[in-house]
Protein 1
Amino acid sequence: MKQKSISLITIIVLFAAGAVMPAVLKQYHLNMLTEIIIFALYAVSYNLLLGYAGLLSFGHASFFGLAAFATAVSITHIPGLSIWNVILISMAVTTLAGFALGGLLLRHKGAYFALLTLAFNSILFAIATKWHSVTGGDDGLSITRPDLSLGFTTIPLASLTNFYYLTLVVLGLAILFCWYFTKTAMGQTVLLMRENEDRMKFLGYNTNISRLILFTFSGAVAGLAGIFYTFHFQFVSISAISGDMSTAVLLIAFVGGTKKFWGPILGAFVYIILQNYLSDITDRWPLVMGVIFVLMVLFVPGGLSDVITNFWHKFFGKKDDKDGKLTTAEEVRP
Amino acid sequence: MSDYLHIQNIHKDFSGLKVLTGVDFKVREKERHAVIGPNGAGKTTLFNIISGKFKPSSGAILFRGEDISGKSADVLNRHGLSRSFQITNVFQELSVFDNILSGVRSRYGLRYHFLRTPARNRVITEKTETIIEKVGLTGVKDQPASSLSYGQQRALEIGITLSTEPELILLDEPTAGMTREETEHAIKMIDQVTAGLTLIIIEHDMDVVFSLADTISVLHYGTILVCDAPDKIRCDQRVKDAYLGEG
């Protein structure tokens, strides 16, 4: 009960903080915050595979990029398409792709699975590069963000502040749903997959179905992030579906920490802010990011969320924790 | 009345190695059936086949009249069959409660649901608590499985096996590696928790076998040497020669 109210307060505070940001931040920083939210959702979807299910994928950009392109292509080719229909079409494409790909790839586990995701990502990247008439190839596709039609009124999204609010609400709710998902039956089943796939079978779980559902869901969520990525930049290039984009999400999840739900969100903050400032200072910012990543994996494998959690327990949490355990033991006795 | 469980002429080859060469026996409903035999006789292989881990090379398994041989483990579990493992096979990083909950919610169909949270379902959590109490782990229910003592892990193994409310239970050496005291405690617990259910148990400890079982099958070199009541088995010359030897 106590835990529940803490969670609720945290959620309200975060949304409230997000809501006042346009009044506090300059346009440049608001732009950055929008990007952070997009990458936070992308990383959260990835961590459902990596942290929760223990599935290492090197091809998560397949879904992110596919949705990003589906968005740009549908806006380019279907004039007057509302923003909701753009989202609907792109999500449908990604979900179907996740389902089909999942069915193919999930026969394998561990390194084979990781390599297959990498291979498939490379195929999609090659298609995006060569299919010039649809994807624009190396030139990419430029679009204009459609306006937000709410039935009774239409809000222009050309304004950055308006688009920021849309991102905050839609992607914020998506992140919230992912968090809720980890508590649901399916979300808990994902943990069983990581812990002991063999034993699950003897408890009535079909492990292939479990993996397929998770893979499709995770892909669809990454797709939603990809849609907003195209909206945000009003442009999509092959980098959205590249191996770099797959590596980026791995890096974000690792830097933030895969053991906590909020780890990848923190990772997105760190990654986007670092990337912005480093690229101002030097053109060789990927090198610096790479070094940071190597150092993190070597010395802080649990990521920043792990460091923060340990710190918290050391200075504030320990006593509370002990008390908490005592009460449960007491409840048990009678 | 037809037989509850009929293992019919089961053969199993592992790339030429014949592990089971025609296993055949029947189990009545609510019977407590022990399978004994020397190491390498094929006891665990037999369990792996009945529980759906392996497919038999030939033969059939009739469960309530239906041939279940070759069905996958998850399907068999939903048919009411559950097994434990000789080597503790639990969800190490999850709490005792979540370990048991995983089976209970599966029984209630909450396996892949996207919206419902099993931890908030009163019926499911109460059922989970009951099973935890039955196997004597109430005091450690919030601890991760990995922090439990060996005896507690074995109890958890049985708790997980019970969690899907099976009617046919297969226990693979539940007391393996336990001290005498722990074994006695475990037998008492197994006796209680399997009351009214059909039990097939693999065991090396003859005290356990003779105190629990109504019927004993002796597996020897991949085939059933004899299948009879405990006191008959004790006196059987073939069993003495093959297995009980020293007695």
Protein 2
Amino acid sequence: MKTYVTKRILQMIPLFIGVALVTFLILSLVGDPFTQMMVNPRIRPADIARLKHQWGFDLPIYLRFFKWFWSMLTGNWGLSIFAGGRAVTELVGHAIGWTLKFSLAAFILAFVVSVPIGIYSAIRQYTLFDYVFTGFSFFGMSMPTFWFGFVLLMIFGLKLHWLPIGGIMTPGMESAPFFARVLDQAKYFILPVIVLSFFQMGSWMRYTRSSMLEVVHQDYLRTARAKGLPERTVIVKHALRNALIPIVTLLGLALPGLISGAMITETVFAIPGMGRLTLNAMTSNDFPLAMACLLIESYLLILGNLVADLLYAMVDPRIKYS
Amino acid sequence: MEKNEILVDVKDLQTYFFTDDGVVKAVDGMGFTIRRGEVVALVGESGCGKSVASLSIMRLIDKPGKIIGGELLFEGEDLLKKTEEEMRKIRGSEIAMIFQEPMTSLNPVYTIGNQISEAISLHQKIHATEAKKRTIEMLHLVGIPEPERRFSQYPHEMSGGMRQRVMIAMALSCNPELLISDEATTALDVTIQAQILDLMRGLQKKLGMAILIITHNLAVVAEMADTINIAYAGKIVESASAKDIFKSPRHPYTYGLLQSIPKFTEKKTNEPLPAIEGMVPSPYHMPKGCYFNPRCPCATEKCREEEPEIVELTPGHLVRCFHPIES
């Protein structure tokens, strides 16, 4: 197991470099931000050349890549071109904090709701309960998030005035006492967390249900019942443990999403998270920021896959990595 | 404990399956008895209801199946009248069962030690270390080498024969009065099959529990069973001591089964092996009269109209036939 983990981590190094290269090349295709300035008659070509030199855009592309990659590794992520010249690390750190809060809440809500319902649906297959939540999960999976988010904002924000229409806290609450601040933020959390968790809820419910259905007809459950175990133990100890194996993989794959955020939902609810930061960086040609965001997200995906693989070996004794 | 005391008395058991295509009478009026310490075989073709009968004794029939009639007397008490809670106390402790597929009958994510000691601590309410000790004793008893090491192994680390030994250890861990073996050797290689049968016979002598062997293979029970019940289409058609069944079968079906076993003592090897003509009747369309009449060489008009009752021809030899073969 230890050698396997070491091997996997070593294998990730070329993957990391490859992903960085592809990210860098794709963004280079767009051109540099200074070429666009040429259409502006008020900027002299000499100034553009000076800017290009200052930002290193006059170097050959491979040198630019290595310089960029080295500074990424050493933690010098540069300055954002358009966000007032603030450090990329600072912007990203701030956005990750917000994204984590929302996505973690949504992740936990989705898990806590979907897994028990999925199990119960499987045990009570083809009952009213099962049909209602099958309908619910298809609704959740097929609902476009931007539309669903707007509809919720319209009903609960604009019509009923129960909840705020986006943002992260009421202005002026930054210096309020801790509990008042938490209470205030909770109101802002409700709608985005519902929208974020809805999709995952739907699909996890289906996965849990089908995985559980596969297990409930296994011979070893008959053995467990023949031992005289109460039905609760049969389901919770013997069935659930097996049914959760594929679910754990799903959870591992959902991990990168916790940090990369959701572009659409964050935009709809005006949350200053990673999703919105990435989107803004790309639409405004903010190269240092966009490259940092893309790189972080793709690295998280690779790490998430590793975590899923390792979790898989932990929950299923039949899987041995060697 | 009296040797001849009746332990299990199955009377007119009816277990039906209510499927979308109609009612399947998997077990329809089956009856047999098991004495304390006796080895009883229930033999029949696939679909004759033998497995359903054994699961009925454990009251482990899943939907859409349901036990709709009869009595299941165990130590004089009707299991069908017990609550689920009372049944749970009997399962695994007084009646234990081993199944056909050793590969899938053990939970893949728990160690075998965990799975055996689970049953022990459930029924005997003893401490975990005691249960572990007892588990290792049981593993040793069923002939598993290095039981301490095997305790913490997973089912996938063992062969089919070993897993079936684990199943037997689990079933016997609480000293049951009755062990039901549902085709327990069918999925194993012939040599392993012989080993497991030997083991069961040895343990039966040692521990003295009664065994109900469910099988389609008469050869499996020839040496082991005291009494053999032949089942056909949900009913017992012949019941007698193993000696009588093999020496003088009275029901044409039993006779056919015995004829279809290859004999190596006879010299004429190029004659085809006799088989019973036809197929087991579809459970949705049972024939009128005796269920065996479409395949029976001795069938008469009466067999096609009336259903025979089971009668005792000679002491201890019961046959359900209007025209039993002369002994």
